[in-house]
Amino acid sequence: MACVSGLVQAQVTIGTADHVVEIKGRLSTYYNQRFLKDGEEDQKKDRFKLRDAQINIEGRVRDIWEYEIQVDFPDLANDGEVDPANPGLMDAYVIYKGFNFMNVKVGYGKLPYSRSSLTPFPYSPYWQRAQIARGDLFSRRDVGVTLFQDFWQSRINVYAGAYTGLGEYSLRGNNDASGGLEYIGRVDFSYPAASKKREIDYVHTPVPLFSVGLNGRYANKKLPEGEEFPEYSQGEYGMSVIDGKKYVYGMDFSVQYQGFSGQFEIHQVRGEPQDPANQLLLGLSSDKTEGYFLAGGYYGQLSYFAKDIKTILSVRYEQLNLNDLADGDSKRFCAALAYQLKGFDAMIKAQYFNVISEEETIDALKWKEQIRVGLTLNL
Please, are residues 48 and 29 in contact by the beta-carbon 8 Å criterion? Predict the structure, then answer.
């Protein structure tokens, strides 16, 4: 017996009167081609890649308990650094819905921060999220406890939680030597009806549907003298977790109408390293840094779903400043085209990347343009 969950077809459903289990799978693969800068010769990223080979198990017990386990096998092969945009273990949590005033989620999964991060990959025409939301400035998943509740027929959703604070590396076992946790809160509001975490107006909404979200997170992880964070846990830019205090706050906005959809998202990181010589302060004096740095950025995206020809067209502009103590920032333009072979369950997707400018002293790139084409399939 098969059953539909959202737009994704669950191929196998097993159930009794009290307990229902759904088993799904996902496969996605693409070819990537980079156009390098003059003088660059390393073409190792020009390749076919198996992005996803996932199995997902979801269960419900008497509408009181819910659970999910989702594993991506290609990324389990990574023996060191974890890709926060696409880790090996994606979900492993339990939700208790027996309280009237709130639900409780315990385990490992997506954090209630950033609409883009919360939007499932199959519902996007893009192969890659905007840089600001990929998980390099703030983690996308962690182990912890989330309290959440919805109001006014799910138009308002409120989340609050506490987590280990090492993001995807929290799965390795111990916390860092500080023992500090990360605390996250989010509230979003939609009108005139509840809004799902989707980028595309696939139903051609007859009345404009708006959604706005506000979220913030805080961690104080001052390490004892001589201690270090686990290897790789600080991410590509060394700021996923910092030796000191870290504040992150952001806002997201979404609108859908008659097949058109748009998203805007902005985030800022404030880091206060406990060591004035921390590399994130770029060796500058305390008079210039005042003991902190700022990072952040935004993106804006516009899309249209041409239902008659089953095609999605989308463009995105993004800007990112990895450290306000260094000159410059990065700007990128992306465009996406997705053709639906079978709704969102089977799509051919193509994405074009163009680097308009970059922060050369912090994130020097070897390429200027990039094209990615492939297939996504929900099994």
Answer: yes
For tokens 């333009």, the residue is 333
C-alpha to C-alpha distance for 205 and 259, rounded to whole angstroms: 7
Classify residue 224 as left (phi > 0), alpha (psi -120 to 50) or beta.
Answer: beta
Residue 377 CB contacts under 8 Å (≥ 6 apart), including other chains? 26, 27, 28, 345, 346
User: Would the CA dihedral through 72, 76, 77, 82 be positive or negative?
Assistant: positive
Q: What is the DSSP letter of 168?
A: G
Beta bridge partners of 331: 319, 357
Nearest in space to 265 (alpha carbons), one of 187, 319, 335, 186: 319
Please state the rounded mean pLDDT for residues 33-62.
95
Q: Are 319 and 298 in contact (CB under 8 A)?
A: yes
Burial of 279 (0-12, 13-18, 19+ CB in 10 A): exposed
Stated pTM of the model: 0.93
Residues 6+ apart with CB under 8 A from 359: 320, 321, 322, 323, 326, 328, 329, 330
Percent of the chain with pLDDT over 90: 86
Q: How far is the C-alpha of 241 from the C-alpha of 178, rounded, in Å?
A: 12
Tokens of 274: 């406990």
The predicted-structure confidence for 146-198, as pLDDT tens digits, reads as follows 999 999 999 999 999 999 999 999 998 899 999 999 999 999 999 999 999 99
One-character DSSP codes across 325-343: TSS--EEEEEEEEEEEEET
* Rounded Cα–Cα distance for residues 253 and 260 (Å): 14
